[in-house]
Design a protein that fits this description.
Chain lengths: 750, 520, 164, 99
């Protein structure tokens, strides 16, 4: 279990890579070769995170070693406190490494001995049911004192459990692919070095965030990924829109950070500790005792989630953030950073579960925000012509889906969706980047079309990812989306009907708008100029890898019944088994719904109908005759069978148009004119009120009163000037007179 | 307790070496310019060397005790003594002050602003250094007051002679404002002298801060305490500067020469907050509890107000000056909580603000030197024309808006955190409201700083400067800036460097406050 | 003691009257001469107080030296000798008021404070030798300072009054 | 002898001196009035010396006389200089300091 206890190495490597690239990149290494450093570092952490994931699975499979490991971990923490409490400096990274190696060589051996002995038994008894297993798999924490202040100790360390290693694998994998992809995509860029430096820094920050041991580290990592996002959105800072977008992203996130700071402080104030493990344990040990404080904390943290994960009403920055380079959009604004909010909810799930009463309610703030965001994002995706913006709204929508899932208590489904979504959304973004790379750096779909024949690799990977996103069997999205819908239907003690409706609608809409994108981009006639060409291998290989994950990603959490025919029931619900922190959640009484075939069919049906409807719509544009024929087949059972234009009318003017025109546009209008305007107005009015206060209060009242005092002195001086005759004797008269008067006063007083 | 041998001399050396250097410079003829400068730099570096010696010699195990104490007769007739000593609270500030002056000398080596005369410029900086160093180690109120006032005069001349267009107005405003505060402060000192009583009820009649700290305002009725505190509050509050007393700051900063601004931001403002922690709160704990809600209120008003003020500025230097108001608001909020946590945060905030805002002023000064303007709308594309400076500005901006991992965050975040659980006798609801307001202030901080950065560094250079070849960061600038940059990162990554030092002192202060509150 | 009181009364009368005339007479030379009378009278008062050396010095320095200086001053500035209407300024009523007010408050304070306290009688009488001892022992530094002051005044007066 | 008789004499002379300083136009006469005031102080010095049986009173009276002599010397020199430059010694003519 060495990797789990020394997980701090994982963020350290890209951090070093960042420093090396930044300080030696241009001079020593050479601008054209800095990606080697970045890729090496990220490959290394990819391997390490796989090792960590493997060791975690071992740990879960053989829980008998938990007790031993737990003790050794505790010792470990203490050791650190003693050894490093005083002299932590720049070198504490090295010290860590050495110490760990020495301390744990022995424990390690012992653990293994036990593990192997009991392996078989556990694998049977533990996971036979496929779900609802009450496996207690304590997290591995190791930390040392970072700083202390007024009797409060702040620790720095790692908190490794299934959720952590899952995110580790996701971040490392996508980061690696994006690093490779970028060598071609941003080749020759003026700030190639800075680009790779920031990618490394982002990776480091994200990993640091993911394995934060305490909430202060969460805040630190949260802010650091934010600033990397700022730097990368504004990568081409010569153009004002890019810097505007970067500023908007950072400031919107900062608004959420108010909630983050306050929420975390409330948690600290309530539980008197910063440790995530301790907070979660405390809540799950006695749920409900701190309900009000948790409600406040959860509401505050929800604001942070809304800003970082693009939830209504703070989502507006995310589409603008597409001003950054496309690989960055894939890595940061689709797959990893924006899920930080979702991750935080999952990480501190007891807080939200208790705070929002997820277990007992049938609607709550988090579920509603998530569901509404999902619906709204999907609607907005119809109205966009910029391919990246469609994908951005799609991301907003899918993040809403995850938040909604967490809101209805479907923890595993949300994390599973996070996992699958990361791959297919990264694939879509990189695909869009590939398209733009081919078609003269435009993202406008009206200037694309017909690219299918020019760039088959891009086309097929894009289609696979689209199907995955739409939730078509057997692609990854189908399994995760299905679990979310199921979770919304079943809920905990009561179902979440509204969320179910939202979820279904979104499933339909997602399929529809993605089909639209595929149509405009790859089918029809090429509407741009020049000769589009397929991207080089260094770009298509990452696409195929991601597409592969989009294809098979669902296998990581297959429900039991599906596997039963193959006799592989033991492999069901792997994500749930490994990732779910049942040590916390079991105390809350979180339950898992039974797999439901009907629900899966409904979800699939919605997605398919979305695709079909859109497909028909665009096909009609291709040739009315074909559409008519098709209509006759497709709508054979309908009473308006003869009236071909009626369907046309229905699709075109009622369903599509109503989605496309009034709903999407009004949503867009609302987005642009109300929310965005509110943000802008808030900014402007803050500036105006700043100006006003500066002019009237600061310069007018406060400074004015100071100046008025000076002026008063001046005028009174003018008046007194007449006394200044310049004649000595007048002065003498005043002097002696005043002395006499003073003397009289003294005589009278004393 | 008193130091012996060489240790008895180190603090005196650290304080007066620059003054000795200044005196030597005075007798060297102006024509020997290089020699004059070398003497100045040498003496300030010697003082810094003494500071580093102190750093190694300091007993970190008992950082709450005064060390290197010297207690000699001075003005016997008013029972004022030459008492100096150093504890964990003074050490970081003394070192900051010792560090900043030689860097400022290096920075202005070849760039003494108009009207030139490096000899006088250097001499004034060295005298300033003596005043600042002395203020941080004095343990006698009259001695403190003398050093506190020594600081004023060189600053007045620095602004008034080497300043910008409106220098006369600004320097006079600075001088009179601070003097007004000092007048109230000395009255409060005298009141403390006459009214303080020891535990047995005998009048103390002393200016010795150690004794007054032990007395903790015993023998003074609460109403009187509140009034005395008011005098100290205005005296120190002006220096900080707190919200309604801040108007001298933007003018002084805007008009001052670069190093003047740097020293003003890095050290001078800290005299006010240091005074609160060292003098006002421990001497009059009861009054401090009575005043704390108001201090907190003014602090959060300052945070929001300073930020809004920044949003309205057109001049870069003025914007940075206003940001000082906001940042010192966080420091004051930490102080107002009267918890050891908050006071620690305040000290950290002081050091962090000193480094970061000092850095920002350095960059602003260098921009002014190259572009001859600081009007934000005329600048732009710094990253393109002077990339290194643009990066440094970006770094300082990020540090200033409180990015974790850099020093600014550890001043802000613990200050906000401390407001959640204010000290004994303070209203939790009130301070939690302050906490939320302060958190909102961080957003505004990000707003104005990034807005500044966007307008100045991003984009293309404006047309009027597009064709000019503008030199990037020079060697002297690197020498002056690198310690600042290292400090910002170092304290950001390892905040315990400061928290460890100050913790002992402030916990004894707050323990005192709590004991007094509980006892009455 | 009666004799002394009588002497005091007579001398005081002369002194006060002379002083009043000195500040009111229109003839500047007369004024100077009245000042001589005042100074001489005061010298007498010192004798009454058994301060012989002060009395002697008063006569030597003031009447001997200072008055000659004044008369030279009067001559050199070509002051109109003889009656002159413009010896007193237009603001003399204010001056008189101030002086009276000052006098009143001092008198009140004196009467209030010292009432009928008597001068110590039969105490040690300090002779010239005692004064000399004191001056050259306890007050040696002030004495030296005074001598430097006089020298400085001498040089200063010459520098100022030189014609070129 | 009452202590007060000397003190009152001194006070009266002092006030007359004040009147002289404030009212007289001729600079020389102003100087003379100052001498009067100094002498008034001298009486107090001497009488208090007697009263407290110390010699300091007389010593200080002597010092005052010496200082007065110096003052007259410098004062008259200044008056002379004024006269030479302005051909007037009327103090009302000098108002360069008028504000």
């Amino acid at each position: 279990m060495w990797m789990l206890e020394n997980a701090f190495l994982i963020p350290l490597i890209p951090a070093l890579s960042f420093a090396v690239i930044l300080f030696f990149g241009k001079r020593v290494i050479g601008s054209g070769r800095v990606h080697l450093i970045g890729i090496t570092a990220v490959s290394l952490i990819w391997v390490l995170s796989l090792v960590a994931a493997f060791q975690w699975t071992q740990r879960v499979e053989h829980p008998s070693s938990d007790a031993i490991a737990q003790i050794s971990v505790d010792d470990h923490g203490d050791d650190h406190g003693d050894d490093h409490g005083d002299d932590h400096g720049d070198d504490h990274g090295d010290d860590h490494g050495d110490d760990h190696g020495d301390d744990h060589g022995d424990d390690h051996g012992d653990d293994h001995g036990d593990d192997h002995g009991k392996a078989a038994m556990h694998s049977e008894s533990g996971h036979g049911g496929g779900h609802g297993s009450a496996l207690i798999s304590p997290v591995v924490t190791s930390y040392s004192k970072w700083w202390s202040n007024g009797g409060v100790d702040f620790a720095i360390g790692t908190h490794v459990d299934g959720l952590t290693v899952l995110l580790l694998v996701v971040v490392a994998s996508i980061s690696l692919l994006v690093h490779i992809y970028s060598t071609e995509y941003v080749k020759g860029d003026r700030r190639y070095v800075h680009y790779y430096a920031f990618l490394s820094l982002f990776t480091a920050a994200m990993l640091f965030f993911v394995m934060a041991q305490n909430i202060v580290q969460l805040i630190v990592g949260w802010e650091l990924v934010g600033v990397c996002s700022f730097g990368l959105i504004g990568h081409w800072w010569e153009e004002k829109p890019n810097t505007d977008a970067a500023l908007k992203a950072f400031l919107t996130n900062r608004v959420g950070d108010i909630g983050l700071l306050v929420g975390m402080i409330v948690l600290w104030g309530t539980f008197g500790t910063f440790s995530i493990d301790a907070i979660n344990t405390a809540i799950s040990a006695s749920p409900g005792t701190q309900h009000f404080a948790l409600l406040v904390a959860a509401c505050c943290l929800m604001a942070a989630v809304a800003s970082k994960s693009g939830q209504f009403p703070l989502h507006t920055w995310l589409p603008d953030a597409m001003a950054g380079p496309t690989p960055v959009s894939a890595l940061i604004h689709a797959a990893t950073m924006v899920v930080a909010g979702v991750y935080m909810i999952a990480r501190l799930y007891p807080v939200f579960y208790d705070g929002f009463s997820i277990g007992t309610s049938s609607i709550n703030l988090m579920a509603f925000i998530g569901g509404f965001t999902a619906l709204m994002g999907a609607g907005l995706a119809f109205a966009q012509w910029d391919i990246k913006k469609v994908l951005a709204y799609s991301t907003v929508s899918q993040l809403g889906y995850m938040v909604m899932a967490l809101g209805v208590g479907a923890w595993t489904a949300a994390i599973f969706h996070l996992f699958t979504h990361a791959f297919f959304k990264a694939c879509l973004f990189l695909g869009a980047g590939s398209v733009s790379h081919a078609a003269h750096h435009t993202f406008d779909m009206r200037k694309m079309g017909g690219l299918k024949k020019f760039m088959p690799h891009t086309y097929w990977t894009f289609v696979i990812a689209t199907l995955a996103l739409s939730g078509i069997f057997p692609f990854a999205g189908f399994w995760s989306k299905d679990e979310i819908l199921l979770g919304a239907k079943v809920g905990q003690q009561s179902g979440y009907p509204l969320m179910l409706i939202f979820g279904c609608a979104v499933a339909f809409m997602t399929a529809a708008y993605m089909t639209r994108v595929v149509w405009y981009t790859f089918h029809g006639e090429y509407r741009g100029h020049g000769h589009p060409h397929e991207s080089p291998k260094v770009m298509t290989v990452p696409l195929w890898i991601l597409a592969g994950m989009a294809l098979v990603g669902g296998a990581f959490n297959l429900p039991g019944p599906v596997l039963k025919p193959f006799g592989l029931e033991g492999l069901a619900h792997r994500v749930q088994t490994y990732a779910e922190p049942s040590v916390y959640l079991s105390g809350l009484g979180l339950s898992h719904p039974d797999p439901s075939l009907s629900m899966a069919l409904i979800g699939l049906g919605l997605a398919l109908s979305g695709i079909i409807v859109t497909y028909l719509y665009f096909w009609r544009n291709m040739g009315p005759k074909g559409l008519t024929e098709r209509n006759k087949y497709a709508k054979a059972g309908y009473t308006f069978l003869e009236n071909k234009y009626y369907l046309d009318y229905l699709y075109n003017d009622i369903i599509v148009a109503s989605i496309k025109k009034p709903i999407a546009n009004s949503a867009n209008w609302f987005n642009q004119n109300v929310l965005d305007k509110a943000v802008n107005t808030a900014g402007e009015s803050a500036r105006d009120s700043g100006r006003w206060i500066y002019k009237w209060i600061d310069q007018g009242a406060i400074d004015g009163s100071v100046n008025a005092a000076a002026r008063g002195a001046d005028t009174s001086g003018e008046g007194l000037r007449t006394i200044q005759s310049g004649k000595v004797q007048n002065y003498g008269q005043l002097l002696f007179g005043a002395a006499a008067v003073l003397a009289i006063v003294f005589v009278i007083v004393i | 307790m008193e130091a012996t041998g060489f240790d008895a001399w180190v603090l005196t050396l650290a304080v007066f070496l620059p003054l000795v250097g200044a005196l030597i410079m005075m007798v060297v003829p102006k024509a020997y310019e290089l020699e004059v400068k070398l003497i100045g730099l040498g003496s300030s570096l010697a003082a810094l060397a003494v500071g580093i010696y102190i750093l190694f010699q300091f007993d970190y195990g008992s950082s709450s005790e005064l060390q290197f104490v010297v207690d000699k007769g001075w003005i016997d007739i008013i029972n004022s003594r030459y008492i100096i000593g150093l504890d964990g609270l003074s050490l970081p500030l003394l070192l900051l002050s010792l560090l900043v002056v030689p860097l400022c000398l290096v920075y202005s080596w070849n760039h003494v602003p108009s009207p030139g005369n490096p000899k006088a410029f250097f001499i004034l900086l060295l005298i300033l250094s003596t005043g600042m160093n002395g203020s941080f180690i004095s343990q006698d109120m009259i001695l403190f007051f003398v050093f506190f006032e020594i600081v004023l005069l060189p600053m007045y001349f620095l602004i008034g002679v080497w300043g910008g267009e409106e220098r006369r107005y600004a320097s006079l405003k600075f001088f009179l404002y601070t003097l007004f505060g000092s007048a109230l402060m000395i009255i409060s000192f005298l009141a403390l002298f006459f009214l303080s009583k020891d535990a047995a009820g005998n009048p103390l009649q002393t200016f010795d801060m150690r004794l007054l700290t032990d007395a903790a305002g015993s023998g003074i009725v609460k109403t009187t305490q509140v009034w005395i505190f008011a005098g100290l509050f205005i005296g120190f509050g002006i220096k900080v500067p707190m919200f309604p007393f801040h108007t001298w700051l933007p003018d002084a900063h805007t008009q001052a020469p670069t190093v003047g601004s740097v020293i003003l931001a890095a050290v001078l403002l800290k005299l006010g907050t240091y005074g609160f922690i060292r003098i006002a709160i421990p001497f009059l704990p009861e009054a401090a509890v009575a005043w704390a809600p108001w201090i907190g209120l003014l602090a959060v008003i300052g945070i929001i107000y300073g930020a809004l003020g920044c949003l309205a500025q057109k001049d870069m230097k003025r914007l940075i000056a206003f940001s000082s108001v906001a940042h010192m608001g966080f420091v004051m909020l930490g102080i107002a909580t009267l918890t050891d946590f908050g006071l620690n945060a305040a000290v950290f905030g002081m050091v962090a603000h000193g480094l970061i805002t000092g850095m920002l002023f350095f960059v602003a000064g260098s921009i002014k030197e190259r572009y001859h303007t600081l009007e934000i709308s005329r600048l732009g594309g710094l990253l393109k024309s002077v990339p290194r400076m643009g990066w440094i500005l970006g770094f300082a901006t990020m540090a200033s808006l409180g990015l974790p991992g850099l020093a600014g965050f550890w001043g802000e975040f613990p200050a906000i955190l401390s407001a959640y659980n204010p000290g004994a006798g303070l209203s939790e609801e009130l301070f939690r409201t302050y906490m939320v307001i302060a958190a909102i202030g961080t957003v505004l901080a990000a707003g104005y700083l990034l807005w500044l950065y966007q307008r100045t560094a991003f984009g293309e250079p404006t047309e009027e400067f597009a064709d000019h070849a503008i030199p990037d960061v020079s060697r002297n600038e690197w020498i002056a800036w690198v310690p600042f940059l290292i400090g910002i990162v170092l304290f950001g990554v390892w905040p315990n460097l400061i928290f460890n030092l100050t913790d002992g002192v402030v916990s004894s202060i707050t323990a005192n406050v709590e004991a007094v509150v509980a006892g009455r | 003691m009666v004799a002394q009181n009588i002497a005091f009364g007579i001398i005081s009368g002369i002194v006060v009257l002379s002083a009043l005339r000195m500040v009111t007479t229109r003839n500047i030379v007369h004024s100077a001469l009245f000042l001589v009378a005042v100074l001489a009278g005061l010298s007498g008062q010192y004798v009454l107080l058994a301060a012989e050396f002060v009395a002697t010095t008063q006569v030597l320095v003031y009447i001997g030296a200072v008055m000659v200086l004044f008369l030279f001053g009067i001559m050199l500035t070509k002051a109109p000798i003889g009656k002159s209407m413009q010896m007193t300024g237009t603001q003399w009523p204010i001056a008189a008021g101030v002086a009276l007010m000052l006098g009143a408050v001092i008198l009140y304070s004196l009467l209030d404070q010292f009432g009928s306290e008597r001068v110590t009688e039969g105490g040690k009488i300090y002779r010239t030798a005692d004064v000399g001892d004191e001056v050259f022992s306890t007050y040696i530094i002030p004495f030296e300072a005074i001598s430097v002051l006089l020298l400085a005044a001498l040089i200063g007066a010459i520098v100022l009054a030189r014609k070129d | 002898m009452l202590l007060n008789q000397f003190l009152i004499l001194g006070a009266v002379l002092f006030c007359i001196g004040v009147y002289g300083v404030l009212a007289r136009k001729n600079a020389v006469m102003v100087l003379m009035s100052i001498e009067l005031m100094l002498n008034a102080v001298n009486i107090n010095m001497v009488v208090f010396g007697v009263q407290h049986e110390v010699v300091s009173g007389q010593v200080f009276a002597l010092f005052i006389i010496a200082v007065a002599a110096a003052e007259v010397g410098v004062g008259l020199a200044i008056v002379l200089l004024l006269y030479r430059n302005q051909t007037s010694i009327d103090v009302e003519d000098f108002d360069l300091m008028k504000g």
